[in-house]
Write a structure and sequence with these properties.
There is one protein chain. With about 325 residues, the protein is α/β, with parallel strands linked by helices. Helix content is about 45%, strand content about 20%. It has twelve helices and ten strands. Strands 1, 2, 3, 4, 5, 6, 7, 8, 9 and 10 form a ten-stranded mixed sheet that branches. Helix 2 links the parallel strand 1 and strand 2. The N and C termini lie far apart (about 55 Å).
Length: about 325
């Protein structure tokens, strides 16, 4: 009799959550973008959020909360009510790199609930046009001939471009100097001005300058050539399969968000991502849509965290922890 009572009580407690999930969303969803407007993270969130709104009939309100490389906005979501109405599309930096680089107020896999890996964007290695290297082999040879003389720009310490450069150093066994900037724009400006020699950045950020001939594309870090830059070989083609570097953006919710609500968010998001117009818009930005399960995304975050933690350790990157 006691077991039956416990079962009935458990069912009664579950019913409100099931009803809530069936009606989800019943009000506007706040979609936090932990970066300023206009960047790749923001563009991906706005395109998908708009389609989510059209499908659900509820507004999906973009809330740009930039700061600390995506950490501040991600932390705000970690501290939000776990009802599915405050979520984020955050980046590899905030979810998998920053926790190994600095003190952050959240643990990604403890304080956040993964929903789905939304998109990957390849990092591309480019050089200034005055650098006499046409491919990655020539660039490595140039760096080895002048140890400590060449430098690479990044969008900031601990950013994906920074660690991409460190991984390049480790993989190619070269000595190049890191020059951090406050964001991608000033890094690109100095690269165009030939104050620095090379950088890894999200492909969409550099594509206009590559097409204009102002920068030279050397290699992309994706497993296949990017449709938007088909003439640039992959790092694997160039003989460096371990130099696979892609930025990525994933949807997360606060911890303790009910599984039924997470499932409803997952269905809504992946349905939006399956729309041909959404695919077309984001493909033009160099993004590849994914849409995996919450369980797979959790494993992916864990693997990425371990990968970049090893790079940080092996490269001797200074941390603030």
């Amino acid at each position: 009799m006691k077991n039956w009572r416990k079962l009935i009580l458990a069912i009664l407690l579950l019913l409100p959550t099931l009803a809530s999930a069936q009606n989800f969303p019943a009000k506007p969803i706040k979609l936090v973008v932990p970066f300023p407007a206009g960047g790749p993270n923001d563009i991906i969130a706005r395109v998908i959020g708009q389609r989510m709104s059209e499908i659900s009939g509820q507004p999906v309100v973009i809330d740009n909360r930039g700061g600390q490389g995506g950490v501040l906005g991600t932390d705000a979501v970690a501290k939000s009510q776990p009802d599915g109405y405050t979520i984020a599309i955050s980046s590899a930096g905030a979810l998998a790199i920053s926790p190994s680089m600095e003190r952050v107020a959240y643990d990604t896999l403890t304080d956040l609930t993964p929903v789905t890996l939304v998109a990957t964007v390849p990092e591309i290695l480019v050089v200034a046009i005055n650098v006499p290297a046409k491919d990655i082999g020539e660039l490595i040879a140039l760096a080895k001939a002048q140890p400590g003389k060449l430098n690479f720009a990044s969008s900031g310490p601990g950013s994906m471009p920074h660690l991409a450069g460190e991984l390049f150093k480790l993989t190619a066994k070269i000595d190049i100097v890191h020059v951090p900037y406050r964001g991608a724009a000033p890094a690109v400006n100095d690269l165009l001005g030939q104050q620095v020699q090379m950088t890894f950045l999200d492909l969409p950020v550099l594509l206009p300058q590559i097409k204009a001939g102002a920068l030279r594309g050397i290699a992309v870090g994706s497993p296949e050539r990017a449709p938007t830059a088909p003439d640039v070989p992959t790092t694997t083609e160039a003989g460096f399969p371990d130099l696979r570097i892609e930025n990525w953006y994933g949807m997360v919710a606060p911890k303790d968000t009910p599984k039924e609500i997470v499932a409803a968010l997952h269905r809504l998001t992946t349905q939006a991502m399956a729309d041909p117009a959404v695919k077309e818009k984001l493909a033009a930005q160099g993004a590849t849509l994914v849409g995996d399960s919450p369980e797979h995304f959790r494993s992916f975050i864990a693997d990425e965290t371990a990968k970049w933690a090893k790079v940080i350790k092996d490269a001797g990157v200074e941390t603030a922890k």
